[in-house]
Specification:
This protein has 150 residues and is an alpha+beta fold. The protein contains two helices and seven strands, in the order H-E-E-H-E-E-E-E-E.
Length: 150
Amino acid sequence: MNSEFDAVQPDLDALTGPAFKLAGDALKGREGFVPFGVFLDSKGVSGAVLHPGGPFDLANLHITLRKAAEVHGAVSVAVVEFGSIIPSSDGGAGTGGKPVEVVRLLAEHKGGGAVEVLRAFGRESDGAVTFGEPRVTAAQPEINAWAGKA
């Protein structure tokens, strides 16, 4: 994408693997899941953050994830959501076609940069989830775990 992104890509890659594993586990035998957060600390250890309870509110999940990032010294954070897109004829999101179920991951890094990763998925006869190839695009930060911090 650019040199700023290239510098943080290893951390984002280390975060997306566990995130999609958790999403696949959450989807097994279910129609969907409540969004959750994941983080990666400076030692390469990842952790998950669940919604704090009550009616779901994405803003509350962002707050909980920002707190976890501070407590654990996170270098990268992400929100993982279940949804659907309507693919365009060129394979991107757009108009036309039948809706496709996807897992959306929005990851942000302390060093700058944010990416959106969309992965369509299918279900095996045993209920296991298999993911298609990721579609990665630059994104605007939404979690803002390091906003106003040097």
